[in-house]
Design goal:
mainly beta; 8-stranded mixed sheet; 8 strands; globular; Immunoglobulin-like; 48% strand
Length: 127
């Protein structure tokens, strides 16, 4: 199935506060959706996600990509399709991406070559 990123838990799900849990994942990427995103199914570990962010990768060339999380509204349970990673690319970048750079959406692009992408998630644990 295309446009789905596959997350593998590498740390956690650890309690960090009252009904707050944190986990770190590696993410294997697929081809992006026509509007530049891939869904991530984290329902095995989380019922609600309060925060999710890109935490790094293993290749500096991959830093030409800007990766953001799209989450459902606060208080909305996650499902297999409402957590997304969006991808933008700056062809001029060869090192760390800067906020002032112009980034284009990676629409329908195959990102399978980006290795060891990591995300961190904080939320309410699935029961």
């Amino acid at each position: 199935m295309g446009t789905v990123a596959t997350a593998t838990n590498i740390s956690g799900v650890s309690n960090i506060g009252a009904e707050m849990f944190m986990a770190t994942y590696t993410v294997a990427l697929d081809t992006t959706h026509a509007t530049g995103y891939q869904t991530v199914d984290l329902t095995d570990d989380f019922k609600y996600i309060h925060a999710m962010w890109f935490a790094g990768n293993d290749t500096i060339a991959d830093n030409a990509y800007k990766i953001d999380a799209v989450l459902p509204a606060a208080g909305t349970a996650i499902d297999a399709t409402n957590v997304q990673l969006t991808f933008h690319y700056s062809p001029a970048k060869t090192g760390n991406a800067e906020n002032a750079e112009v980034f284009d959406p990676v629409n329908a692009g195959d990102l399978g070559d980006i290795g060891d992408l990591r995300i961190v998630v904080i939320g309410k644990q699935a029961t």
